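Listing S7. Sequence submitted for prediction.
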Amino acid sequence: MIRCANLTGSISRNAGGLFESVRRLVQTMWDTGMELCVFGSEDEHTSADYGAWAPVPVKAFRSLGPRQFGYSPRFREALFEFSPDLVHTHGLWHFSSVATNQYCRSLDIPYVISAHGMLDLWAVRHSRWKKAIAHFFYESAHLRGAGCLRALCEAEAHAIRQLGLKNPIAIIPNGIDLPEATRLKPEDRSQRMEDWKWKMGDGRKILLYLGRIHPKKGLVNLLRAWAVANRQSTEWVLAIAGWDQDGHEAELKRLATELGVKWMDVHSQVKVGNRTSDNPAFKSQLPTSKLPSLIFLGPRFGEDKAACYQNCDAFILPSFSEGLPMVVLEAWAHSKTVLMTPECNLPEGFTANAALRIELSEEAKEQGGKAGRATPCARSPGHSLESGLQDLFAMSNTQRLVLGANGLALVRAKFAWPVIGQEMAQLYEWMLGGGSKPACIRDF
């Protein structure tokens, strides 16, 4: 039986997409009979999210010093106590990199690193000087000592090679739970739909963004495009759901006001133009032209998150950089039309006619990492954010259903967790000296 330790920066929702992807990966591997344990840092959401990892045991440690680094002497001690045959680190620039390197080097134990997009060019450039220091002191040794580097897609594999790393590379994407496991019961969906009706306005279609509210997600460009495209159609509302990082949500609200986009924040106060109200009846009395076209929903998890996907009509991710975004897979699992950039690293979605392609200008890509910096959208015909939104507005319900069905078929065939679990199990066995070289190991 393989005994494997999985190390991550946080075991709570604060980890963003890693929370879902790492949690479901280890649960899938647990079902194959492996002995597993997850190690991570403690934060304000740890106690609430701890149970989501069951039945896999989890150890969370209080950090000393800078919280983002996550230093804890107990972290390393617990790893030695568990004594795994193999270590899998998820993410970079964290004390888990140091703990992995120290444990595995001292006992000659193999380890695999899932960078989760953190070696992409945009990600490396963001907070460059901090990462340069980390690379010098510990991350370079951690990366170069890995028995294998796991990439989520071919684009990430090429980015890894461009950094000069010579390790074997395995391409294994993130997985997704199939729709049967993610659908709300009809009565639960109906109850949550009632909560949405007065927020959105009867009869309007919903374009959803869900994820971290962070500059790299391209939301500044999205709001600028929305201000233009939405003037031509009042049938759609843009809903932004997610957790704020470093005050970026406030920057988006200021930009929306500057652009003349009516917005409402439903998780703090209701705002329409210059008026505020928390009375649903006030909203229902307004004509559609007076309703906000932009809604901030706040963080959404569990069934509330599922309700977002089920009640929206399309999903958008205008990101500058992604490893392999779980939110797109989740939207496809709910049969939703997706608008996304090539930087989301899911070219299969375009090939399978499951997504509309939106592209960013080179200037937008250069400036995208600067919080609050307004950047122009691409001008290439048919592919800019504005024209992508207009294409969406022009689609019939039948056309959107076709794209959504294509997305669902794609995740069933390629991204279901049982498929991913089998590929990862073969990789672990090969790293421990058993079995032939798995097909996921690619030459670059």
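Caption to Listing S7: primary sequence and predicted structure tokens for the chain studied. The first helix runs from residue 17 to 31. The first strand starts at residue 3 and ends at 10.
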